[in-house]
Amino acid sequence: MEHCSCATTKPHRVVRIVPYSAVCRSQRSIRLTERDVTNHQLVAANKGKIVIAKPKHVMTKQEALVHAAWIVALADDEDEFEQILEDVMAM
User: Using the 8-state DSSP alphabet, how is residue 89 labeled?
Assistant: First the structure.
C-alpha cells in the first residue's frame, strides 16, 4: 500500500492525481502542482458508483481535463483507463 503525507495512521486508499504524487481522500483538494486541480465539481465515489455532485455543463478545456482526471482517479481502480483511452483515440 502506498503512503501519503496525511496524519492518519489507519490504512486507507491512496490515489494518484498527478504523476508521482499520491494523496488520500482527505487531501484530494490540495493543490499539488501549479495547476488548480481542486475538485470543484465534487466528483466522489459512493458504493462503487461515481457521483458528480455539482456538474458543470460548460467547461474550458483545462476544466474538462481536471474533471476527467478526477473521474479517472476515482473510477480506475483496475488500471483500465490507458487501454480505454487508446480505444477512444483510435475511433
Answer: H
